[in-house]
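Appendix B: complex inputs.
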Amino acid sequence: TQLLEQSPQFLSIQEGENLTVYCNSSSVFSSLQWYRQEPGEGPVLLVTVVTGGEVKKLKRLTFQFGDARKDSSLHITAAQPGDTGLYLCAGGRDGGTSYGKLTFGQGTILTVHP
Amino acid sequence: DAMVIQNPRYQVTQFGKPVTLSCSQTLNHNVMYWYQQKSSQAPKLLFHYYDKDFNNEADTPDNFQSRRPNTSFCFLDIRSPGLGDAAMYLCATSRDRHPNQPQHFGDGTRLSIL
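Resulting structure:
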């Protein structure tokens, strides 16, 4: 079983603070996807990283894929209440029994207080 | 806009009474997934279709069945719902099974069991 350990599970911060969410695994993934889910809605893709060491930025969000493609991080600068939600990392593998399926981390519930 | 649509958004059924949840997509994607998600946890994959090829997860209870009559529609049948089946059910699609492909989620059906 290819596990993705996501941390922290809960994060409660004030508006304007910075934060980082981590996803770690002992397995190599072909891609790492980050999703954000708001209450009552389905997850929405934020970014896909596929190259070891890759860094992608989406406004105040910075995503990084580890050099060995076993870990990833999401950094949010100057968090806003609109960033509140459930953040999910998900890894995709090329081949084997996991082909075509995503391995999800446990999720991080982020609450940003005004 | 092309999208994944789930109906109904909320479903209430009685203990043991069969229920069917539906999902339609206008993306013309080959792959359709059904997930179960409980209280802000990560989605748990129940099964997926690659075109007409059905792929069941080993730990999906026999109580859960699925049908995909055509590319656009997929159904989740719960034959005898128990209290533990109360959850959000998410449908997702993907263009193909390549690990870099993102999944597009519907907004889910929240199932309650009386």
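Residues 83 and 112 of chain A are 7 Å apart (CA to CA).
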